[in-house]
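Example record

One chain of 233 residues, shown exactly as stored in the release files.
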Amino acid sequence: MNKTWNDAEIKKLIELHEKGFHFTKMASMLNRTEQSIYGKMKRLGLRSIDPNKQKTISGEHISKYEKYDWELIQEKYNSGLTTDQICDLFKICRASLSWGKNNNRFITRTRLESNKINYSKKSIKQNIDRYRQLCLFKFSLNDYPDKFDFSLIEKYGWYKAKNRGNNLEGVSRDHMFSVYDGYKQGILPYYISHPANCQLLPHKLNNVKKRNSSITFEELLKRIEEWNKKMVR
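Predicted structure tokens for this chain:
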């Protein structure tokens, strides 16, 4: 049974309502059931506030999505993240991105700018082969002598297949964030082929790793950002 309302509680209820709190939130704050709060509001002629909205000082209702850091969200999206990755990174739902788009807070890529790899069922192999080619490392290790462990090459040499030198114990260049994951998530080849995504690894360990990534895409973005900053200096 709900306890009787006193004047102080009624005053507090009215104050909370004026601040824009929804009755479910007020129930928690006033230690009452939602049914009690809703019933009292109805008797007082107070209208329930949409839980997705809050009041400004002027009394105008604004969406809860206003408080999101849209500049940072846009920046991460522009860096190459997909909308799914944005939702995971910021712990937000797709509805919030739709709100941001409809209110000019979040600008999505056009088809030409999109990171998505456009493929059909008929040409998956063809497209992934092309993607793999675009993701090859095109830089020279000698350009970055302080970035890689050359002692591995001195110790094991470069990997060579049986028909091309037969050094199966040799070293190869590994994509830490894998080509497979890049293709699957629609990441631009620029990120996958970046030197910051490269590590020297004995080929046998590379084979064990297979298509798996040893870092996340978010970690790769941080590595690229730090790499590029050092290169500018």
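Notes: The beta strands are 53-55, 61-63, 171-175, 198-202.
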